[in-house]
Specification:
The chain has 339 residues and is of the alpha+beta class. It contains 8 helices and 13 strands.
């Protein structure tokens, strides 16, 4: 059953009851003196060398200390962001029969609609419906509702440029050439996936979970959301609520960035909580290397016997398939591919 039509429920079905494991699983608001970093993209792309240098330093600190940051002044027009949210709402408003035409089973299927995570095998269902589309190197999108494809193609084009610029800054922040990631990850053929997660109001939010703790498989994830909170990140041994900033994007490190940086920039664990008042929509844009790239630590970041690469080498495509075969809520999959 998809959740898009669940508004009449007064309690959750038993197979959606998700038990958290410890009292430490309760999320808190960030401390004022240790809050989620905010990166001003206009400074990162500035022609003023002092401004750019400071922005690269701030980017390094954000990637190292938190693995996630809010991105402001990013240049994606506000009306385009709203049009993207509205267009994807339109998809979830289609009939079940229409949406089920796009059900996929494999992580690399170009279009996949579904509910939970892997509904065919999940013991406990997650309180979300989702749509995932491969949008690069070839763009895929459901043909309905009308206009969806055009809106998403334009949004993806903007965010793709943004991701490339961020990866240049991240390369620099690691002491590498600005074009290091672009070249070694074959970003002209970068595998990029746009997803939309729909989290309807849940009658018993304390018993359900939108998405449990996980890390992302790519290099970077750039997330847009409506103004309803729910994202939580793991920081300093605690779960911290990410309160939305109007028109800001949320950017987080992925597993491949952790490998490339030889562990300096950890892939951040995060999860999605649900609420009983309003529908939350989150739209993550996951940018990775090309599907055939084997990501290895940058040579300059491997020094001596105490700082050797520790992960089994595999193509990005194989890593995605490996990760999809694991049970969600097991933390970072990188821990399962250690040498």
């Amino acid at each position: 059953m998809a959740l898009a039509g669940s508004s009449n429920l007064t309690s959750i079905p038993s197979h959606y009851a998700f038990t958290t494991t410890t009292p430490g699983d309760q999320a808190i608001h960030a401390d004022l003196d240790d809050s989620i970093p905010v990166i001003d993209f206009s400074l990162l792309s500035s022609s003023n060398p002092d401004q750019r240098s400071k922005a690269v330093f701030d980017l390094a600190k954000a990637c190292q200390d938190w693995g996630v940051f809010m991105l402001i002044n990013h240049g994606v027009p506000e009306n385009q962001m709203k049009a993207t949210v509205d267009a994807l709402k339109g998809f979830f408003d289609l009939t079940e029969e229409e949406k089920n035409e796009f059900q996929g089973k494999h992580v690399l299927d170009p279009i996949r609609y579904g509910t939970s995570f892997k509904a065919s095998v999940d013991k406990v269902f997650l309180w979300r419906d989702f749509l995932k589309m491969t949008v690069h190197p070839k763009f895929h999108c459901p043909p309905k509702p009308e206009g969806l494809s055009k809106v998403l193609a334009e949004y993806c084009g903007e965010v793709r440029k943004l991701a490339r610029e961020l990866l240049k800054g991240i390369s620099e922040s690691l002491g590498l050439e600005p074009g290091y990631v672009d070249k070694t990850m074959d970003m002209d053929s970068s595998l990029q996936i746009l997803a939309a997660n729909l989290y309807p109001p849940c009658p018993q939010p304390e018993l359900a979970m939108g998405l449990p703790s996980h890390s992302d498989y790519g290099l970077l994830t750039i997330l847009m959301q409506n103004d309803i909170g729910g994202l939580q990140v793991h920081h300093g041994g605690k779960w911290v609520k990410v309160d939305p900033i109007p028109n800001a994007l949320v950017v987080n490190n992925g597993d491949q960035l952790e490998i490339m940086s030889n562990g300096r920039y950890k892939s951040v664990l995060h999860r999605a909580a649900v609420n009983n008042k309003a529908t939350r929509i989150s739209i993550p844009f996951n940018t990775g290397p090309s599907s055939d790239t084997v990501v290895v630590p940058a040579e300059q970041l491997v020094d001596g016997e105490h700082n050797q690469a520790t992960n089994i080498l595999m193509t990005y495509k194989d890593y995605m398939e490996f990760k999809q075969s694991r049970v969600l809520d097991k933390g970072s999959s990188l821990n399962q591919v250690k040498i």
